[in-house]
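sorry for the late reply, my laptop died twice this morning and i had to redo everyting from scratch. anyway the thing you sent over, i finally got around to it. pasting the sequence first so we're on the same page, its 486 residues, then the predicted structure underneath. double check i copied it right bc i was rushing
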Amino acid sequence: MGKTHALYPVIMAGGSGTRFWPLSRHLYPKQLLRIGGEHTLIQQTMHRILGCAPASNVLISTNAAQADLIRVQLTDWKEELSNGFLLEPEGRNTAPAIALAALEVLARDPEGLMLVVPADHVVTGQRDFEAAVQLATQLATEGYLVTFGIKPIRPETGYGYIKPKNTVLLGKRGTLRGYPVQKFVEKPNVAKATQYLKAGHYFWNSGMFIWRAATILEEIGAHQPAILASMEQIRALKNDGSPQQAIDDVYRQIKPVSIDSGVMERSSKAAVVPVKFRWSDVGSWGSLDEVAEKNRAGNVMTGRVIDLESKQSIVYADRRVVATIGLQDMVVVDTPDATLVCPKSRAQDVKTIVDILKKQQAPEHLEHLTVQRPWGSYTVLEEGPGFKVKRVTVNPGGRLSLQMHHQRSEHWVVIAGTARVTRDQEIFDLKVGESTAIPVKTRHRLENPGQETVHIIEVQNGPYLGEDDIVRFKDDYGRISNTTPG
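ok and here's the structure:
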């Protein structure tokens, strides 16, 4: 096939946590959950693509609010991914994110190929996945925009469909083959989905793609010229050293467009490789049936669950005991601050619940009571007018940013381990039972110099206690001030 082209996997990891609420949240989306294995979905994705390319080639497309938690989960590849994060100031759907990634790949390698994969899908069959990538890579080097097609197993109305042409572009009988796309079909109704299933030559659109970075940019320029123009403007601003705010302002003006409807459905270069590996986008609680282990009664039970005679149900208990009796096709999910109970058939409506919580500005849609950070975690124990109480843990060797708050003071009491405190020009250690006060507008830092996890109780006082009241002076994790706490 001629010259070998380097492959740059792009993990699309900017989604919000709606369909798996209350376990997932806006700042703790589905990709960070353990579903269908011992690793989280984004960890599974990382392991999968490392069979096709080195970790140093991987790019993570996400946003500043989620980047910290992703870094924590991908800490095994911390060095390789040090320059691999592409942060969007605001989600504008997949076409702008892919354009941004393509420009990055092009800057690194003018002949580079991109393997675009969602961070939150479950794929079973590593060898079959690698074989599909290899075939699709050959098609991509010839100028095709390649997507993977999944053989339907039910009349699904939540996926887009692909109808290939009869012409074989690559591959032999009995092996994987690549075909030009005849048409893409938007999410159909039940009658149409049933028709496609019976026809046997329609495939689900997996949302995974392979193409040359140069080719996808050409097609974005042809079908979405405004997006390409904005991305080139952003890259020019970065190269000129312009303020981040100027770059963010350009990005936020981009019209949200999906790569499927904006480019793939309009391109004459689209091709599909029907794959052999098992795939699920794990789109709702009900879809856990496809990937999770079940007991003899067909139940998926996780945590401290005591059940009597339930069937075909999903029950998740975070900390408390959850007792169920005689359920049939139900979903029960219990977390410390929210509980979901619904029939499996209504699991897709969880998104509507999240929308209501968001309109109410309820914190339960945003994040959990316990929030993970690169250095450890914090849990809100109690809060009210003018005060907030947290339990803060700092991992061995971890430290928070050197920071300051304009509107709140803090008081720290160590309950486990030894904490090292920076307070303006002072640096001192606190042992169990010892405490210190951090006045308003005082530069401070908390760190753990020992081998035991540090636990402290933090009491905040002030007229405003939001997590965005932070000025960050130094940070070990490359975070920008006023974007994420801690």
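Residues 332 and 341 are 5 Å apart (CA to CA).
thats about all i looked at so far, will dig more tmrw
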